[in-house]
Amino acid sequence: MTGSLTVVGTGPGRPELMTPATRAVLDRATDLVGYGPYLDRIPAGGAGQCRHASDNRVELDRARHALSLAAEGKQVVVVSGGDPGVFAMAAAVFEAVETGDPAWQALDIRVEPGVTAMLAAAAEVGAPLGGDFCAISLSDNLKGWSTIERRLKAAAEADFVIALYNPASKARPHQLGQAFDLMRKLKDAATPVLFVRAAGTPDAKVVTASLGEADASVADMRTLVIIGASTTRRVGRWVYTPRRESTP
Ligand code: SAH
User: Fold this and answer.
1) Ligand 1 contacts CB of residue 124 (under 6 A)
2) Do 27 and 46 form a contact (C-beta atoms < 8 A)?
3) Which atom of ligand 1 approaches the CA of 137 most closely?
4) Quick one: pLDDT at residue 40?
5) pLDDT score for 56
């Protein structure tokens, strides 16, 4: 049988937020490749389905491993959290294709969309992404901090709502605080800041603050941070960004 490789995302956590298309691809897989905790979210597949769990740091190696299994004729599914194209495995797979065995370019490679953390987090609090927004990863594992600062500044100057992925980890405890310091020079102190932990799961927790008072230590690696635009506002216990530029 000809091999294939499909990159999927499990969604933010709750099983209902994994798409039926992703579920169907997982059911047909002979081999699952991914970070252990993401593989653990997937119910046991048919007999003979093989799971290749790895730690989180070696995305490119994992992608190459998946491609070589597909080249052997396996039906391979690479598993990410959320959406596989957002700060996740899909880009690593294409980087491995670009730099690896030219024969890999002939493989049947597909990407299934999933519910990314930013969307699940927004839904927990109302409609903070109602206007124009952008997403920035604060992780400097694969890019320099100066690039991150330049993008944060440009996003603040353009008055985007800003979704911050990877706001903090044990190895990177200080970057969110630095990002807030930068934002405080460019944005109103009353701007809403949302910390949404474990969005789209039964453990979801939201902390709403103002930029002036936001405490970076609230965030951990399961938190998505949203910094409002100038029009982002609270109504009751919700936060939303109106679609129109001037509010009614
Ligand atoms: N591909 C994933 C993102 C991977 S980057 C996606 O599309 O969601 C990992 C970061 O995503 C985490 O550090 C955190 O900022 C965010 N994240 C992932 N799942 C989350 C969840 N359930 N709630 C809040 N943030 C989450």
Assistant:
1) no
2) yes
3) 5
4) 85
5) 63
Distance from Cα 97 to the centre of ligand 1, integer Å: 25
The low-confidence residues of the chain, meaning pLDDT below 50, are: none
| Confidence at residue 121, expressed as pLDDT on a 0 to 100 scale | 98
Ligand 1 atom nearest to 89, measured from its CA: 1
- Residue 93: φ, ψ to 5°: -60, -45
Give the whole-angstrom CA distance, residue 78 versus residue 51: 10
Residues in Cβ contact with 187 at an 8 Å cutoff, skipping those fewer than 6 apart: 156, 211, 227, 230
Question: Which of 7, 10, 115, 224 maximizes ligand 1 atoms within 8 Å of its Cβ, making it the mutation to test the pocket?
Answer: 224
Annotated domain spans of the chain: 4-115, 118-240
* C-alpha of residue 144 to centroid of ligand 1, in Å: 20
Question: What is 4-115's CATH number, 3.40.1180.10, 3.40.1010.10, 3.20.20.70, 3.40.50.2300?
Answer: 3.40.1010.10
Kindly indicate whether the domain formed by 118-240 is annotated with CATH number 1.20.1050.10.
no
pLDDT single digits (tens) 80-92: 999 999 999 999 9
Q: Provide the pLDDT for residue 37.
A: 84
